[in-house]
Design brief:
152 residues; alpha+beta; Alpha-D-Glucose-1,6-Bisphosphate, Chain A, domain 4; seven-stranded antiparallel beta sheet
Amino acid sequence: MSQVQKSIDVDVPVSTAYNQWTQFETFPQFMGGVESITQVDDTHLHWVTDIAGVEREFDAEITEQHPDERVAWRSIGGDTQHAGVVTFHRLAESSTRVMVQIDWQPSGIVEKVGSAVNVDDRQVERDLERFKELIEERGHESGAWRGDVQTP
């Protein structure tokens, strides 16, 4: 199992950063390799990715979500195995630390080599930098879902 842990400080209030992160269908705007995400219901997402020429479709389930604090998920079904959590930490009135932890199981030679040379770390770091640019340029979220999902 591979693990990536990255964080970035964004110059927006914690609620703005959190609210934007709940807009899963906008992830392709800042996540490299994510072609589309369809939100099926409050806790289920369908992902389509193309990373380094490896195309995948898989479903994910939100396992825990608390406004302005955290969003956790895991893949369900299919051959893609990953889980993660994003946490939001108030640094000041208009500054937030966004922390990402992803655990995933590389499959195939391309993913195993990529993980071994930390391509996944650099990808998450670039994605967070693009998230920072997106939310700071906009200055406000494009939407929000303030529901609470308890750990099963």
